[in-house]
């Protein structure tokens, strides 16, 4: 039987990497290859997925797979398959592409055309954050494009919000999608990646640009203390409020030279930092994604803070 190509979509911070990690921890995930598309310069998701595992992993960095990296995607899939053959291992059962959080599945699906001789069975799995879905749906056409393109929609954060409002939204956007409403992480991952696909994906292409989204890289100076870092993050959340969509990256605590802390905020809600080994994959920097706030605007978080803010082109996230 031919391999599956699963496009894992879902809005910023909706739980794609978490779902993927939960899946890779299951015995059913044997013979899975992963491609991670990270819009920012630091490959946070790749570092998380690779952490401690042996999964064949390829990275598409520094751009959005649905607009600027489509050729790279075809090349990457072919390279993964070739390496596997050359290593004398059996074929992959599935390849999962984790898209960046503002990618639209439509252009990615179209870009896979050169791979059609391989006979990959393609489907779309989208994560939907039960807590954030109503506000995402109101502000971002990408949310609708992701849900509408999905064969399977997986509700996440059911420990933070009831499922009803998100389910109603999903049903309105895509009544044909299979829905996974499961609080247990392992069962959720199993259902997400093994549920029988429904009808072929359909997706609206509106062509409208999303509201302005700024992507900023925040790097702390040598002279920054640990408190400076924590204060800046706290001030950022207070300053940006609901304009803050996502923060992720690594901080290097001066008192723990071997450790990098994975820091994640979805909206202004911060998850407990996760310690990881410090190394080339875990440079100290934060990617800040905010509506209507670019690097220049973020200087007002605290003009005196020892932090360097630089702009990552908005085009990297736009898919219009
Ligand atoms: N409480 C709770 N937190 C979750 C759940 N799923 C993910 N998270 C947390 O939400 C944050 C974002 O999760 P990720 O898995 O990184 O989300 P993502 O969609 O890969 O994020 P991007 O790649 O930035 O778009 C992390 O801090 C996770 O630990 C969930 O079901 N419940």
UniProtKB/TrEMBL annotation:
Catalysed reactions listed for this entry: GTP + H2O = GDP + phosphate + H(+)
Name-wise, this protein is CobW/P47K family protein
Which PANTHER family does the UniProt entry name for this protein?
COBW DOMAIN-CONTAINING PROTEIN, COBW-RELATED
Q: Pinpoint the CobW/HypB/UreG nucleotide-binding domain residues.
A: 6-169
Highest taxon, organism lineage: Bacteria
Show the taxonomic lineage: Bacteria, Pseudomonadati, Pseudomonadota, Alphaproteobacteria, Acetobacterales
The organism encoding this protein is: Pseudoroseomonas cervicalis ATCC 49957
What molecular function terms (GO) are annotated for this protein?
hydrolase activity; nucleotide binding
Q: Does the keyword Repressor apply?
A: no
Say which family it is in: Belongs to the SIMIBI class G3E GTPase family. ZNG1 subfamily.
Give the InterPro entries listed for this entry.
CobW-likC_sf, CobW-like_C, CobW/HypB/UreG_nucleotide-bd, P-loop_NTPase, Zinc-reg_GTPase_activator
